[in-house]
User: Fold this.
Amino acid sequence: MAKKLWGGRFSKKTDPLVEEFTKSIQYDYKLAVYDIAGSIAHVEILKKAGYLTSAEASKLVRGLQSIYHNIKDGSFALDTASEDVHTRVQNLLEKKIGAVAFKLHTARSRNDQVAFDMKLYCEMMIPALLGELTQLTGTLCVLAGKYKQVIMPGFTHLQHAQPVYLKEYIGAYVQMLKRDSARLDHIAKNIRPTLGAGALAGTPIDSSKYKGMVEVTVNSLDAVSDRDFVIEIISALSIVAMHLSRLAEDLIIWSSKEFDFVEIDEAFCTGSSLMPQKKNPDVLELIRGYAGRLYGNLVSVLTMMKGLPLTYNRDMQLDKEPLFNSFEIVSSELKVLAGLIKTLKFNSDKIEEHLKDESLYATDIVYYLVDKKVPFKTAHTIVGKLVKYSLDNDILIKDMPESLLKKFSDKFVKKEVIKLFDPLVSVRSKK
Assistant:
C-alpha cells in the first residue's frame, strides 16, 4: 500500500487483507479532476486565512495543475496501491513539489473532500446527460413528424383499445423524457459543493469569508454525512431507465412477426449462433434489462444509508460505484437508442390491417348513441351486447342489416354506423 494520509497513532502495519478490502482507488479515481479542483480552491482559502504564504500557495497550485494536465493527457497512473484518490493525488503532489505538499491537508478531511468531489462530479455529469436526453427527445420528435399521418391501434392491457395517431404514441415518450430532464435539472440546481466542514465539526477557518470560492457549509455535520443528492440522482436516473425500458418493450413487441409494425435496422440487431434466420432486438432487450440494475443501485444506496448514525461512516464509500454505474448505463442507453430510433421504419400496411378490427371503434359507437340522447351506461351495455353478438355469430357489425342493428337500439342508422369504422374519423373526434 502506498503512503497513507494517516497512521501516526498506529504501531502495526495494516493487514494486507484489510488494505485490499478497504481501498476505493479502483473506482474513485474518476473523482481525480474534481478532487484537484477542490484542492486548488482549498489552497486559496488557506492562503487568505494565513496558513500559506503566496509562494507556497503558488507552488501547490502549479503542482495540482500539473497533475490535472497528467489526467487530461492520460499520463495519470492509477496506482492501485493507493488507498483512495485523495491519497493518490497527495502522494503524487509530494513527488512533484516536495514537503510543501504536507500543508495542503491543513483544515480539511477526506470526509468533506469526498462530499465536495462527488457533488462537483454530479454538477458536471448532469448537464452532459441532459444534452443526451435532449438529443433523444429530438430524435423522437423527428420520427413522429415523419409518420405524423399514420394512425395505429392504441392499447390498454396490451389489447386493442382505440385508434390513435402514431405521433401521439411517440409523443407520450417525449413527455416522459421532458419530465426526466426537468427532474434532473432541478436536482442539479440544488447541489451545493461545500468545503470547510473538516471531519465533522468545522475548522478554525471561517469559510463564510471565502464564499465566492465554494458554497458555505450551513451545518458541518450534515455536509459530511449527506448523500441525499446521490439518492436523488440515482432515483431520477432509475426513472429515466424505466421510461427507456418501456419504449424498448413497445419496440420489441412491435417488431415481432405477430405485430410487424416496425422494422429495426440490422445495424442495431444481432443474430443467433444456431438459428440463421434470427434478427434479434438485443439492444432493446438490454435496455429493458438494465432498468433492474438501476433499481438495484438505488436500493443499495438507500439500504446503506438507512441506519447510519451521524456523521461519516465508511459504509458511505459504497455510494460511488452505484452512482458512477447509473450515469454510465443511462448515458450509453440514450446514445444507442437515439441511433436506433433514427433507423426505424414503420409498416403502414400492417398497421392498417390491425385497424380493420371493429372492436377498436366500439367506444365511438357508444358516443354515437350518447349523441342521440342515450345514457352513457345504457349505450355502453348496448354496444357490449352488439360486440358479443358479432363475435358469437362471426358477423361484422358493418355487415349487419339495419333491422338487426335496431334490435340492439332503435337509434342505430346503418349508414351512420358504417362511417364510424374509419380510423381518421375516430381520431378526429377526440380532443
Notes: The first helix runs from residue 16 to 22. DSSP finds 17 helices and four strands in the chain. The first strand starts at residue 151 and ends at 156.
